[in-house]
Amino acid sequence: MGRMFNFCLVAVLLVGVYGDESSTSSVAPPPTNETPPTTTTTSTSTTDSTTSTSSTTSAPTTSTSTTPATSTTTIPASTTSSPVTTPAPVNDDQFYRVTEDNVTCIMFSGDVKFTVTYPQAGGKVNTTTVKVPKANDKTRPATSSGSCNGSEQYLLVEWGATNKNSNFRLTFNSTGLKWELVHTEANIYMDEATFVNASDIGQELTVMGEFPGLSYVAVDTNSSLTCRALTESSNFTGQVLNSSSKFVVAASAVGVEMQAYNSVPNTTNLQQGSRCEMDITSDLVPIAVGCALAGLVLLVLISYLVGRRRRSAAYQSV
Ligand SMILES: *[C@@H]1O[C@H](CO)[C@@H](O)[C@H](O)[C@H]1NC(C)=O
Ligand SMILES: *[C@@H]1O[C@H](CO)[C@@H](O)[C@H](O)[C@H]1NC(C)=O
Ligand SMILES: *[C@@H]1O[C@H](CO)[C@@H](O)[C@H](O)[C@H]1NC(C)=O
Ligand SMILES: *[C@@H]1O[C@H](CO)[C@@H](O)[C@H](O)[C@H]1NC(C)=O
Ligand SMILES: *[C@@H]1O[C@H](CO)[C@@H](O)[C@H](O)[C@H]1NC(C)=O
Ligand SMILES: *[C@@H]1O[C@H](CO)[C@@H](O)[C@H](O)[C@H]1NC(C)=O
Ligand SMILES: *[C@@H]1O[C@H](CO)[C@@H](O)[C@H](O)[C@H]1NC(C)=O
Ligand SMILES: *[C@@H]1O[C@H](CO)[C@@H](O)[C@H](O)[C@H]1NC(C)=O
Ligand SMILES: *[C@@H]1O[C@H](CO)[C@@H](O)[C@H](O)[C@H]1NC(C)=O
């Protein structure tokens, strides 16, 4: 199985290398001696057009040429024109940061939300959604704080009106060489607008739990953990102090980028790091499809070669 996989990888790599070679050879002016001289004139005109004019002039010339590989020459032409655009100013930071002594130990970004089923005054239940505001959310401003203290680093995000505010807290732990997310908690103020006719209106709902793929995942120190994919848990606990109300809480997070226990000073960007399992498996799917296709092509090729050899053998015997 392992050998098969290696072979498959090699096959996929070969396909990739071949693809690269075909694209570069189409850009290079000297053609092979098999091609007629009419195609050489069109290829030199496209290389000239990349320096002076836009890709619109090269597009009709590629349509007249018979080889499909020349269509890839339009792609490098468009990429050479792209660096002209200036990068947008980074006024709105997407990250929550905890910084002490010029060391940003914690960075966090992602869409986190809680879906809460709560009991109402009339004995019924209703479901509502509470979103943790993102760092650059202008409509729902939040403040953040935290600690870079060795034994327990945390990030605390707070939003809402005074005395009616909610918060979200991530707690991290470290073994020195690795760090991990050990606790996720939110204290949600149950306002009338969000928790319609809730029996515990005006109280604070505390939810806590674990995110699969993020919680208790050991990550190297000075590196990050990212998770593009959706991670969710249907069994967060929900509790209001001194209340017997039963809450059902589901939590989800998507597009998470985080790091804690970073000790590299003066960094503004996320460190390189690990990806969650869901992201890795989702990236394996196209590779598997590529492998299957490569295998199919190989099978057809082998059967063709075998068939031809048999036929020529039969021809020689006659
Ligand atoms: C942090 O950086 C500021 C300048 O941005 C500098 O004045 C200060 O000394 C630094 N603090 C430490 C602990 O490195
Ligand atoms: C349930 O909650 C939604 C808002 O989350 C609200 O619009 C709706 O009126 C509520 N239904 C009842 C029966 O309270
Ligand atoms: C960090 O821990 C030390 C003791 O180890 C304590 O004195 C200090 O208050 C803590 N700082 C924060 C921000 O929690
Ligand atoms: C944090 O790590 C320390 C040392 O590895 C361990 O003793 C402690 O139980 C951990 N705390 C949590 C909340 O996991
Ligand atoms: C909330 O409860 C009151 C009385 O219990 C009722 O009149 C009202 O219709 C309820 N509102 C909703 C949105 O269910
Ligand atoms: C919640 O789900 C996780 C993973 O599915 C499981 O390990 C844990 O025991 C569950 N907790 C409860 C309270 O059901
Ligand atoms: C909860 O009940 C305890 C005693 O049972 C009391 O001391 C505490 O103040 C109550 N808390 C709230 C928020 O009502
Ligand atoms: C993390 O980075 C700091 C500063 O560059 C360095 O001193 C420390 O040894 C690094 N830790 C690990 C575990 O690599
Ligand atoms: C970090 O930056 C501050 C100010 O820009 C500087 O004083 C400090 O020496 C720097 N620290 C390191 C380790 O580069």
TrEMBL record:
GO terms for cellular component: late endosome membrane; lysosomal membrane; plasma membrane. It is a single-pass type I membrane protein. The keyword Protein biosynthesis does not apply. One of its GO terms (biological process) is establishment of protein localization to organelle. Residues 35-89 have a biased composition (Low complexity). Its main location: membrane. The keyword Metal-binding does not apply. InterPro entries: Lamp2-like_TM, Lysosome-assoc_membr_glycop. PROSITE patterns: LAMP_3. It is found in: Cell membrane; Membrane. Pfam families: Lamp2_2nd (PF21222). The chain crosses the membrane at residues 284-306. Belongs to the LAMP family. This is Lysosome-associated membrane glycoprotein 1. The lineage of its organism: Eukaryota, Metazoa, Ecdysozoa, Arthropoda, Crustacea.
